[in-house]
UniProtKB/TrEMBL annotation:
Superkingdom of origin: Bacteria
UniProt protein name: Class D sortase
CDD domains from the UniProt entry: Sortase_D_2
Taxonomic source organism: Holdemania filiformis
Keywords: Hydrolase
Length: 193
């Protein structure tokens, strides 16, 4: 009888832990979707204001607010906020501080998690040379074309350097399970859509 009760207690505890984990994950996904929708609304407003003033931006700073990163070939659309603190990367991609602004001659570096389920950059290794990566902030979307993918150690900061052209670098873990290296995508500013 004691074994049966103990077994029921263990099973109940397991069900409770799984329920809490799933509930937390659902909450995170809902917050992520809300951030994307909010960012989309702000971008639309900025675009309307820019068109009314006959102004289109060629670059922007994440200090002005979040942007949307889209990779059509991966069916990916995520919000990008300033910074790579744990709180930021929990709900969005993060622009690495002290790297270039989008559309500028520098190297704009964006980092994101690649968890087994639901990671922002889970499918990033499927990207191909020539694929487009689009950053939207208002005004004209900035379109980049992928020219290189590589895997580096976490200590290799050469991918953060700028070659003086408008670059975009996306960084995530090389493996969703055992993240010993970084998978890097590099793209150059192509044109505005």
């Amino acid at each position: 009888m004691k074994r049966k009760i103990f077994g029921l207690i263990l099973m109940g505890t397991g069900i409770l832990l799984v329920s809490l984990t799933l509930g937390n994950r659902i909450l995170e996904l809902n917050q992520r979707k809300a951030l994307i929708a909010q960012t989309r609304a702000v971008i639309t407003q900025r675009m309307e204001e820019a068109q009314a003033a006959e102004f289109t931006e060629d670059s922007f700073s994440f200090a002005e607010g979040p942007a949307l990163l889209r990779i059509p070939s991966l069916n990916l659309e995520e919000a990008v906020c300033e910074g790579t603190a744990a709180d930021t990367l929990k709900f969005s991609l993060g622009h690495m501080e002290n790297t270039g602004d989008p559309g500028s001659a520098g190297n704009c570096v964006i980092a994101g998690h690649r968890n087994v389920v639901g990671g922002f950059f889970h499918d990033l290794p499927s990207i191909a040379i020539g694929d487009e990566v689009i950053l939207e902030h208002g005004g004209r979307p900035l379109v980049y074309e992928v020219y290189q993918t590589l895997t580096v150690t976490p200590q290799d900061d050469s991918v953060l350097l700028s070659d003086g052209t408008g670059q975009l670098t996306l960084i995530t873990c090389s493996s969703a399970v055992e993240p010993t290296h970084r998978f890097v995508v590099q793209a150059r500013l192509k044109s505005e859509e």
